Amino acid sequence: MKLGYIGLGKMGSNMVERLLEKGHEVVVFDNNEDAVKNISRHGAEPAYSLQTLASALITPRLIWIMVPHHAVDSVIKGLSPFIQPADTLIDGGNSPYKETIKRSRELQEKGINFLDAGVSGGPSGARTGACIMVGGRKDIFERYEKLFSALSAGGSYGYMGKSGAGHFVKMVHNGIEYGMMQAIAEGFALLKASPFQLNLTEVAEIYNHSSVIESRLVEWLRKAFEEHGEDLDNISGSVSHTGEGSWTVEAAKESGIPMPVIEGALQFRIDSQKNPSYTGRILSALRNQFGGHDVFKRD
């Protein structure tokens, strides 16, 4: 199929490369013209304005938006003069699910379809196959299912439910991720503080062979130890967060669901801004491994 793609950051550029590799035609736009030029060398059709992108697509148009959640409304507003009823927009970023529901309702009033796609796997998953959770009208999901299939890692995609469901499921996923990362970081901090002078790289390797806690996160930690040393001296002990953890905690409070583990993990990240620690370095190292986040100490 032919689609438009807006947003060529670490995730977006890798997803476009995968789509091209799978035989799809992609018209790309980003405010960073260098990013557009770079991906066009792989076969994407460059567009240097939203109007040009929309004009290059066959109706009904399909446009994937991959920008930070606070920029989604401005992108939709910029596209509005150039799209028409029966076109479909997909928000593939991490947007608050209530904002997604609102956007879907407003677009539906204009006859424009809107799907929310939560994407997990980081930049490497975007390139080699991601996990994708989709919300919106089921018939629209089914119409473009081969797109989600092409972007996924061997069937790792699915329809979650009505508008907002995809972003809600991804939000909770990220909250769970906070808790899992926190447990790993705390455990390895205790291992490091033990009297046994443990080889933490070897411990991570052992943990990741048929143990109950075998996981991609443990493997990423092993890689971080190999790349940066077990002291992680060049990694910041202050851990950033991008919002999804706090959204999960807020949703839990609204639903009356106790969430002490995820709430504690979120609070640790907030407190780490003033109290950096080795546990924080492990969390930062993990964020760098799977998300490509800049977590290195500043001079």
Structure explained in plain terms:
This protein is an alpha/beta fold and 299 residues long. It is globular. Helix 9 (165-193) packs across helix 12 (244-255), helix 9 (165-193) packs across helix 14 (278-291) and helix 10 (200-207) packs antiparallel against helix 11. The N and C termini lie far apart (48 Å). The protein has helices spanning 10-21, 33-40, 50-55, 72-79, 97-109, 122-128, 138-143, 145-151, 165-193, 200-207, 216-228, 244-255, 260-271, 278-291; strands spanning 2-6, 25-29, 45-46, 62-65, 88-91, 113-120, 130-135, 152-161. An 8-stranded mixed β-sheet has the order 3-2-1-4-5-6-7-8, sandwiched between helices. The longest helix has 29 residues, at 165-193. The mean pLDDT is 96.
Key descriptive features of the protein:
alpha/beta, 52% helix, 299 residues, eight-stranded mixed sheet, globular, 15% strand, single chain
